Structure formats: structure tokens, C-alpha cells
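Progress against Task 2.4 (sequence-to-structure conversion) is shown through the following example record, which the project officer requested during the mid-term review.
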Amino acid sequence: MALEIPRPVSADSPDCLRDTRAHTMKRNWSFGFLILLAMAGANGISRAQDTPPPPALSTSTVTAIPLEDVPMQADSAYSSLNAVEADLASDRATGPIKKDLPLISREINSRSEETSRLLAASPSLARLARLENGWHAMEKNFDQWQRDIARRTGQLEKYGTMLSQLDQTWELTLAAARNPTTPAPVLQSIQAVVEAIQQTVKNLETKRRELLVLEGSVTREDARVDREIERVSREYKEALDHIFWRDSPPIWKVAAQTSKTPATAREGQHSLATQITGLHAYAERQAHKFFIHAVILLVLFLCFYWMRRRLPSPGAAVPEGLPSAVTILEVPFAAAVILSLLASLAIYREAPRLLWAIWGAAALVPTVVIVRRLIAPAVYPILYVLVGFYALDQVREVVAVLPLVSRILFVGQMAAGALAMAWFVRHLRKVGTSAGPLSGLLLIASRVALILFVAAFFTDFFGLVNLGTLIGHAVLQSADLGVIFYALVQILEGLWEFSLHVGPISRLKFIQNHRDVLRQRMLEILKLAAWCFWGLYTLALLKLRDPLMAYSEEILNYNLALGSFSITPGHIVSFGMTIWLALLVSRFLRFILEEDIYPRFHVRAGLPYAISTLLHYVVLTIGFFLAVAALGFDMTKFTILAGAFGVGVGFGTQNIINNFVSGLIVLFERPIKVGDVIQVADASGIVERIGIRATTIRTTNGSEIVIPNGSLISNNVTNWTSLSGQREISLPVSVASGADPKQVMDLLKSVAAGDPRIAKDPAPQVYFIKYSPASLDFELRAWTEHVHHVVQLQSDLALSVNTALMKANLALK
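C-alpha cells generated for the chain above:
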């Protein structure tokens, strides 16, 4: 709550003047508060150490306030002071830090104690990596808090500068007012303002001291986190460097320590209590994240439930193209749980390991429910084995501070895994293809897992604990992730199937025309992404991803120098990938236009092809320049070089440039279009393609003729296809000289009108061309829209005319 600073008013002042001053004071208070907030927001984004301190104000820059302006300036000063006091009292920036700091300190105590116990128990590389990631995630809290404190420090510095200037101004005013001619009420008012400023300065200094104390506490806790990160990182590096060394006695020697079971039990109970304390502190500090997780779960469940209501009822025939969607949406809650738990990976980035163990156990049931619906019954045993191993992993994670118990559980787990894989290999050979489409892949994976389980068992059994744990943990985690990815791909495939058949995008033309192809393409993309993520995760479990990435980066960044020109393989790969992506984008955009956009609009023939071709050129041009930039070239230098190169080779390539520009003219002006029947010199046929350099036409005998675009602009071109889409057929007819011309003309018109391929508008016409003693010559003219079959139509029409003339005894003898 803002401090209300009293303002003395002269006793002989009228009431109306007091009311006016009060109104002015309120208005100035609001205005001053807005100015202070704007100053604080504009300058609070930089860190305190990055912002230079404000320059010291000398008294020469400050002048005393004239006595007649004291009442108005006093109201303004009180408004500014109240705004500062209100901001100091609100404490919006550091309030959450003060609230969460004791909780995170308690959580650090718990985690630090648990880390010490884990490090004393010779943890595995995977566990050390999870410890380090957890501490790094917690460190981000302190980074954000320190930025908030720095912003708050900058705000207080600006308040201090403003109050210093205000104090100097009113001190000079008070010194100037100390004379016998100054009215006593005015002097009292000035003294009250000075006292109010000094009180606000004291409050500001108190806030500064509190902020310094808070900053010190945050720094100390941050230093504790840094020490833990350093300690875990040192242990991780040492364990990785000695991965092939014996780091523990053989298992039969360690078994002699079983006599310490009571102490071990007490140690386990204490470790569990410590973990529960850390989890409670985390849950109290991050309660909003649990709420977000619950909202995500509820939204996903409602969406899946709504989608299930749109599907056929259970027992009804499954529509074609919806098998995965029906399978997944029959268990909407299980699918929602799996997706929400995957989303929790981003929500609970700094969660303690006990919470991850709880989430892992919670994911078992829905995963089994969904995967059982997607695999053959012959594969059920391997699913149950993986579920059992996963549950045992969570137990080992909780008792990780007990090295003997954890190691015995691990060795037993490896032995059980080897036996299970050996049995499963025989089982898959026996059932054959009845195991489903994954039988071949599962057989290979089972054999590899069998070898690795045996290797992990013996390495840990004889004392190479880190190496054995690394191998066994990689196998188990990789298998678990494979099951999760398999279920996730099926869920996403089901959602894609649903959207293609039921969702709003199913109304798009290109979806309706190519639904099966799009479904298959999306499935291939999902599988490829799942394999890539699974492979990277497996390499990370084996501690091979970082070395391979470093080695690949070294190869891609290897400098290939040729004089002053240098390039790297990475630049070449980037160039090729950019061009490839440009081609994909161009194909996709043209596909959308041709399948869904053009059919919705009545555009003139040839215009869609011109638009698609120009779009193709534009996308490729943009992609080329981006690819050149990916090569590392300075685009300004590239432009200069391209200009010089263009001048040098322009004379030698002018014919190519002429054809290219002519092709653009043909596309824009559209004297001919794809599908037109044209004749250029002796070549005639249907326009198949208008390319960058040449146009391809297909003749009636099936051959293709490539005509340079320049010839289409510079030479005479006959386009037999009119703008109306019709072509004229001209058929000369001769009859005996004694025939009735009107009868012949009516007969020819009726024959032409009787052919359904002849257009009704314009109607067929017959002209009397020539009279001779031997014959009467006529010409039948008709129009047809079948421009690509004119020769066949003309032949059929001639045959019909001949038959009609013979029946009417009008044919030449």
C-alpha cells in the first residue's frame, strides 16, 4: 500500500482552493506514476552491471522553485513520491523470488544430500548424466532470478537519481525561503516536502538493502548449484575416461557385505525420506506445472473422446483408411495419458528423480493397453518382459544410493534378460510370420539384445560395473523408447487418418483426390522421424553421439582452400539441401494450386500452367540465392562477380538468354498454351510443355518435337485452337452435275448435325463453291471442341457424307 504523505495547507486559504489543489494533486499523481512506470519499463530490460550509473547532479544544474510556484510543484512532488512509494510497496519483481527461495533452498539441500549418497555409491554414467542435467535445469531458475534482480536494481537506481534531483531542488528552495518575508505556511509546506522526500529516500535505501540481501542469498544458492554441477561433471568425466577399467570388486566378493543389511535398510529408508522431502519442496514450488499437466491431459482426453464419437460404433464395419484411428480412439484416455506424459518432458525439466519414477510407473498401463492393440498376440511375451524390466528399472532408480542392492538387481536383470531373449528367439522362429510384419525386425533385435545382455552380465559380474551398466542400460532404455515411439507413431497416424476422413481438412480437393497417397507419405515421415530420434537417443545412451557429432562437425568444417577461395563440405551440403528443399517447396505449392486452387476458379486455359511455371521459377531463384548464401559467399561480392561473369559470357550465351526471355513472353502473353494444336513451319502437334529454353509438342504419330522458344516469337506460328476452345473442320464435297444443289446442301448439313462431336453453335455451314459440266463442288464447314481428334473426326465425317450421298444417288459415278 502506498504511503500517504500529508501536505500542509494554509489556514487562510479558501475551501475551493483546497479542493482544486486536491484535484490537481490526484491528476498529477496519476501522470507522475505513469511516467515512472514507463521509465522503469523502458530501462529495466538491461542488467544492472551493463547499465552505466547515472551521472551525479551538481547544484549548478538545479535551481530553486519560485515561491509562487511552490503549491503546484508540491502537488507534483507528492504525486511522484506516492508513485515511488507504491512501486516500492508492491514488490512485484522480487516477491516471487522471496517466496520460492526458501523452497528451492530446501530442495537443493535434499538434492545435494542425495547427490552425495549417489556419488558415494559409484553411480553409472547414465545416472550421472541425469544428475548433471537436473542440476543444470535448476540453475536456470537462478539465471532468471538474477536478471529480475538486475532489472529491479536498475529501477531503484533511477528512483534514486530522481529523488536526488528532487531533494536538491527542494533543499535549494528551502534555503531560499529562509527569510523573514516568506509566509510561514509556504515555509512549512516546503519543509513538509523536504521531509517527505527524505522519508522516501530512507524507504528506498531500505529496499536497496533488502535487495542486496536477496541478491546475496540468490548468489549463494546459485554457487551451491554450481559446486554440485562441478562435482557431478568431474565424476562423470572420470568415469567416462575409465570406462574400460575395473572399478569394483567382482560380485562374489561384494556379496560378503550382505551382513550389513540392517544398516543398508536404514540407509535406504533415509534415502527415500530425503527424496520425498525434495519432491515435496519441488511440488510446492512448481504447483502450477502440475496444473498445466492436468489441463493438457484433460484437453487431450476431451479431444480424443470427441473424435471417437465421430467414428463408427464398436462392432460396426471399419471404414477404409481408418484402421489405426479406430484402434487408438477406442482407448482415448490411454492415448491422452501417453501424449501428456511426453509433453511432461518439457514441463518438468528439473523434476527430482522420484517424480520421474512415478511418471514412469504411471505410463506403464496405458502403454501396454495401446501396444497390445497394435501387435500380434505372438509378440505379447516380449511386451510383458519389457514392462517388467521397466518397473525394475524404476526400483533400481529409487535405491540407487545402495550400491550393493542396485548391483545385485542389475546383474539379476541382465541374466533374466538374456534368458528371455534366448527363449524369444526360439519363439519367433516357431511362430514365423504369425508374429506380424515386425517379426523379422524383432528377431534381429532379440539376437542383438541377447548378445548385449550377456556382455553386460559378465562385465558387471567381474567388476567392470560402469561398462556393464552402460551396455545394459542402453539396451533396456533403447527397447523402452522403441515401444514408446511405436505407440506414438501409431497414435499420430491414427490422428492423421481421422483428419483425412473426418476433420475439416478432409474437405480440401487435393485431400479427397490423393487421400491414400498422403496417408502413406505421412506414415513414412513419422517412421523416419521415429527412427532418427531413436538412433540418436541410442547413440547417446552408448556415449557415442557426442563423439560422432564432434567428428562429423570436424569433417563438415574442414576447410578446402583453392587460392583465396575456401569452402567446407558443410557449405556444400547446405547448398545441396537448400536446392532440394526449394524443389520440394515448389512441387508442393504447385500441387496445392493445381489440385485445390485452380478448380475453384474459372480461369482461362493456359493461365494455371503459366502461374505454376512462374511460381516454380521464383521459388527456385530464391532457393538458389539462399543456397549461395549457405555456401558462405558475401552476396554483395556474388552480385558483382555475377555481373562481371554475365558480361563475359553474355555474348556466348545470347541464344540461350533469347530462348529464356522468349519463354517468359510466351508464358505472360500466352499466344499459345499447353494443350493447343499449333503448327510451326512443317511441324504441327499438341503443345505438351513450355520450358525454360524450348517448347515440346507431340505430333499425331506419337513423336515429340522440341522447338526453341525464340522460334515461337520470331517465326509464324499457326494456332489451330481458338480462344473459344473450338476448331473448324473443312470438308470439300463433289457431286454429279445434275444434282439439286439445295438438296445436296441440306443433306450435308444434316449429316454434320447428326454427329454428336460437331458443335451446335456455330451451326454447320455448306457453301456452293464451283459449277462445272462434270461436277458440282461444295464445301462443308463445321466446328468441334474435340481439337485433339480433328483428323479422326474429319475422316469419320467424310465417311458419313459419302454414305449419305450414295444412298441419295448423288455421288459421282
